[in-house]
Amino acid sequence: MPHRYHAFAEAPIYNFAPPRRRGFLSRLWSHLALRLFRTVEIEQLGWVCQAFARNAVVGPDLRVTTRAWCVNPGPPENIRLGQSVICRGLIRIERFHEGHVVIGDNVLLGDDSIISCAERVEIGAFTMLAHGVQVYDNDSHPVEAARRERDYLIASGRLEGDRPGIGRAPVWIGDHCWLGTNGLVLKGVRIGPGTVVAAGSVVVSDLPPFTLAAGNPARVVRSLSS
After folding, report:
1. Which of 3, 39, 161, 199 has a CA that sits 20 to 30 A from residue 153's CA?
2. In whole angstroms, how far apart are CA 202 and each of 3, 124, 219, 224?
3. What does pLDDT average to over the chain?
4. What is the pLDDT of residues 144-161, one digit of tens each?
């Protein structure tokens, strides 16, 4: 189902028509439909809260949306969220290797953001991940074609066996960072405190503290004041 708030959602397009006065039955139907929608949304929110309560150690004042989710095949301690975290995206421990996610206090994970962890991902306090930011401490699949084919068949349930080795390395993002919309952070990267990563950038190597970085691959553009 397309995300109803997404600008590029695949949904019917209608001609614009100014609002007009509707009859009683039309207003009644709208009222009932809205109540049903709210009931479904509350039910979905309950599933989200259960997913976080079951799969993570959650600090006080966690805030989530109905689009947030938490996946963890291991013990809840593998995902730790500090206090006053806002999560609007996905936090996922991968099944092919046990990982650990540590989220500091007052961190924002924006709409459609993804944290994919097979080793360790750590995000410092007051750091913001904008909409669509993705953080991977792993390659997701083997680089070699033959091993990637086997991995795909195993991951999709078409072949028995253990998934081949997949590259992974810890990711560390410091306090007070800001990662712009649709940014990508890859395995083995350290981003210093106070650093801003411009929208759409791909971070493949370490970035020093209090800098502005941009591009693919991301490079330091200038220094920032602390």
Report:
1. 3
2. 25, 19, 9, 20
3. 92
4. 999 999 999 998 989 998
Average pLDDT of 39-51? 92
DSSP single-letter state for residue 199: T
The whole-angstrom separation of Cα 67 and Cα 49 is: 11
Active site includes 141? yes
**DSSP code of residue 138:** B
Give the dihedral sign, CA 46/47/49/54.
positive
Omega prior to 60 cis, within 30 of 0: no
Domains of the chain: 24-223 (2.160.10.10)
Average pLDDT over residues 182-186: 98
- Whole-prediction pTM: 0.85
- Outline where DSSP puts E strands in the chain: 57-58, 63-64, 69-71, 79-81, 86-87, 90-93, 100-103, 108-109, 114-117, 120-123, 128-129, 134-136, 171-173, 178-179, 184-185, 190-191, 196-197, 202-203, 211-214, 219-223
Residue 102 CA neighbour count, 13 Å, CB half: 11
Residue 67 in contact with residue 88, Cβ under 8 Å?
Answer: yes
pLDDT bracket for residue 165 (50, 70, 90): confident
Annotated catalytic residue, options 3, 31, 97, 141: 141
